Amino acid sequence: MAFQGTDTYVASDALRLAVDAAVALERPLLIKGEPGTGKTLLAEELASALGSRLITWHIKSTTKAQQGLYEYDAVSRLRDSQLGIEGVNEVGNYIKPGKLWEAFESDERAVLLIDEIDKADIEFPNDLLQELDRMEFYVYEIDRTVRARHRPIIVITSNNEKELPDAFLRRCFFHYIDFPDRETLQQIVAVHFPDIESRLVAQALDVFFDIRDVPGIKKKPSTSELVDWLKLLMADELAREALYDRDPAKALPPLAGALIKNEQDTGLLERLAFMVRRQQSARR
After folding, report:
1. Each residue of 201-229: pLDDT tens digit?
2. Shortest CA distance to 26 belongs to which of 154, 125, 138, 112?
């Protein structure tokens, strides 16, 4: 297999090699990178490129590894037995397959996305080691072993909110998605907006990188936020003109809410703009 990206997803050479290596090694591909750099989208586009089914398991702070295998609803079974509902003796009626079960029993090789694994408890990754290694697990309630018909391609994303266990990391192929440079961002923008004005892209990227380079900024704007901002600018002629004629002494660019997401960064940019205005006044 040779993943080349898609018409809607620009993949770097390093990322393409990482995907191919993980598939060749039959290891989960662990993807890290800044929010908004396309980690989750990678799995979606990989499934699209392969014509495979995408199975997504979104991880929350309360998610347990067992939920990815199956869940046994003993409460519903007890209630049904008290009501005399037919089929209560069939334990399988109260077994809900999880996302790993779905991926293992898929008729064709699926792409399984385990999204934001670092949100869960620290033991969560270790609880999946055996299942991901052996591609099987045992369902005690129905005395059955579920085995993968076709080994799924597993993509695991992490925002680096907490360290993952070494035993888990040893079983993964790791890749960090670097933040795109200006040229790559231009390619990404062209994919989303083929007819966009080059002047708008140039001006927007200047402002975008200026904001990212501000010392002390808490939440740097991401690639997805740049795309959202450009979409708004394309639809608002007045905002575009304000961007073209922008005065560095003004605190925020037009429609800044697409890029700046907290009051601390807004205050920081306003203070910097105030310093610029004061320097300009001193020169006069």
Report:
1. 999 999 999 899 988 889 999 998 999 99
2. 154
